[in-house]
Specification:
Radius of gyration: 19 Å
Helix content: 40-55%
Number of helices: 13
Distance between the termini: 49 Å
Strand order of the largest sheet: 3-2-1-4-5-6-8
Strand content: 15-25%
Number of strands: 9
Length: 298
Amino acid sequence: MSLPLVSIFTANSNSGSACIGEIKKKYSNKVRVRGVFRSEEKANAFRKSFQDADIEIVVGCDADRPETLDKAFQGCRYALIVTPHDPNRGLQDDARLAKNMIESAVANNVEYIVLVASWTVHFPQKISMLSSRFKPSEILLEKYEKEKGLKWTVLRGGVFMENTIPNLAQAVKTSVYQFPDILCPYVDTKDIGRSAAVCLTSSNIEEHHGKFYEMNGPEQLTGQRLAEICSKVFNKNIKYQPVPKEIFKKFMPEAVYQVFEFMVENRHCVPFTNDVRELTGQSSSYENFIRDHLNEFE
């Protein structure tokens, strides 16, 4: 009897790629993997990273064209769906694209979906522009659970460590870290992928069915603490300088500004849980994340 097939859509996303890496490293005896891509360009980059892995590659699946999605899910029992974001299309389309992906998975008899979503759904009025990307998908999963018996898990992504790199790279050059004054348990997107791998390869899917897991790192960090960590890693004195909201409003996209304005005014708004560690047995520290990405600071 062949192993169940898992669709990872999209496989070139940070969490999707990390999920595949974790499955191939720890769980290759439990599932087979299908990596799904929109373009051949993205698939080729992926092939270089997973040259020796036994992974089925499917190309040409565009969430904006539902007729192309069947091949992403045909024959699969499980699926990881990463909420898509294409800056050229705009945020307003993300929920519709995710809906297309979920509906195709259900139509192709996928039994269990792990969805990568966002913590912002906790505040649909205050962070409406980003939360609206994700909340409709959560509602849709619950709808298909009632109508078709779909099993599902939602990984609510926190604030990504990766998003701090541009500001910190500048801080390494200038010795001043400028950022809004927030308190945040930043998460490495690799930990989201690892968490997804645990759920998708579980011998008891019911254990994770209907769960909303909050994806965050092991510590709540201020701007001052980030500057201290980078000072240690790069062996130089980096000072923290908070940026008032009337300043960061000028250079942030409106949707991003809405989030950071809320975070400044509500310092403990980002969920801080042990979900990642309880699922995976580990949780990436910010210092280790920076050391893993030193090449991006050159």
